[in-house]
């Protein structure tokens, strides 16, 4: 509802009356219309402010939704990093010498013992060589395989 138009209509009606402004009734009617005009302006300003606040609230709501999505992504990434850290710790444990838990080294072994040239990664397997006992330790299908262990 447009209150300014309604106040304008009342002003037109008041001007159509033959009531002079210097009489008490005319002064009262003019003051009432002036007050209504000021109230109509204030209501319109408040309505504009509310509309602007609703737009801002919708924008904030959209941004909160985006932040929640980012937060969920961060939580999933954090869980993944925890799992990766656990896997790295498990790998570090597997790469330690079972005799004294000292670090051991990764070396390449040709698939064919007679083949000296194994530049291509497909031509070799990677295994762990125990520097104390000479065993070749490799992982096949999540199982630890120990080969060529020398007796002490």
What can you see in these coordinates?
The protein is of the alpha+beta class. It has 2 domains: 3-90; 98-147, no CATH class. Helix content is 56%, strand content 14%. It has helices at residues 3-16, 24-94, and strands at residues 105-110, 124-129, 136-140, 143-147. Strand 3 and strand 4 (143-147) form a beta hairpin. The longest helix has 71 residues, at 24-94.
Please outline what is shown here.
This protein is of the alpha+beta class. It has helices at residues 3-16, 24-94, and strands at 105-110, 124-129, 136-140, 143-147. Residues 120-124 have low confidence and may be disordered.
The helix/strand class is alpha+beta
The share of residues in helices is: 55-70%
Q: Give me the count of strands.
A: 4
Mean pLDDT: 76
Low-confidence stretches: 120-124
Tell me the strand percentage band.
5-15%
Domain count: 2
Main sheet: strand order: 1-2-3-4
Write the layout of secondary structure elements.
Elements: H1 3-16, H2 24-94, E1 105-110, E2 124-129, E3 136-140, E4 143-147
Index terms:
152 residues, alpha+beta, 2 domains, 2 helices, 56% helix, rod-shaped
């Amino acid at each position: 509802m447009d209150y300014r138009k309604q106040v304008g209509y009342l002003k037109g009606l008041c001007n159509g009356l033959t009531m002079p402004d210097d009489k008490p009734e005319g002064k009262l009617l003019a003051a009432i219309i002036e007050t209504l005009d000021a109230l109509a302006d204030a209501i319109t300003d408040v309505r504009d402010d509310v509309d602007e606040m609703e737009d801002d609230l919708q924008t904030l709501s959209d941004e909160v939704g985006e932040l929640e999505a980012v937060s969920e992504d961060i939580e999933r990434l954090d869980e993944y990093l925890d799992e990766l850290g656990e896997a790295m710790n498990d790998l570090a444990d597997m790469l330690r010498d079972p005799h004294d838990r000292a670090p051991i080294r990764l070396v390449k072994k040709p698939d064919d013992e007679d083949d000296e040239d194994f530049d291509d990664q497909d031509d070799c397997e990677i295994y762990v060589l125990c520097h104390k006992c000479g065993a070749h330790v490799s992982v096949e299908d999540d199982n630890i395989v120990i080969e060529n262990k020398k007796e002490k």
